[in-house]
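Example 3.2
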Amino acid sequence: MPNRIIKESICTSDTIDQLTWFEEVFFYRLIVNCDDYGRFDARLPILKARLFPLKSITEKQISDALNKLSTVGIVTVYEYDGRPYLQLVTWDKHQTVRNKKSKYPAVDGSEEASASENVKLISSEYNCNQLNSNASLIQSNTNTNTNPNTNTNTKTRTQKEAPQSEKVQFAENVSMTNAEYEKLVSTYGEANTLRMIEKLDNYKGATGKKYKSDYRAILNWVADEIMKKNKNDSVSISQECPTMSKNVANALRLVEKYSQGEGDYS
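Structure, written as tokens:
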């Protein structure tokens, strides 16, 4: 394992100052264990064994520290192929990359993606228009259907009739099978699933990025992004979008609450 660089600026860093003593030690031990691209296995037993082999540390302490590092923005956690990984956000600014490939996949499965490229895939901002659009989707799904002949399911008839294994289009740039869509709804709920589809659709439309599996791309980075952003979105609603209805705001708060539960690593 190559030597890692820790600069004296950490002593006056506002971000590091938000950490407890244990969280700061956790961060430094993480730095010396990450691969050349600032990535590492995020499974709790692995983190416990590699970072604290001689200490009596619980997985709950590891989970709490990891969540805190994610909250302050120096680590981001994502999933690829059903396994959690982590990325140190500012790795490229402080460390030297020697290897041509990472030991761990980026959110899109790439072994060559740099830390900054990986973070860019994970991170994106919602503006007021996107909030209103998402809120409208949530509101339309929470309205009571008084007409028994009216179908309020968000999936179209074509999507319903398609076989479970056949890909169907859920947005201009997003396709997946009905079975994959139902898995997302089962795991994250209808409102979150719609936000994920819209987010990936906007990202692909803006960048021209293509994925072998849009479903896998959603699992890899969108879910983690929503976990981080829902709280900020709901808090800023009254300031950024004052015309938003109370019912929609309440719906977004429910999304936030559910997403925070999904973000528990313990």
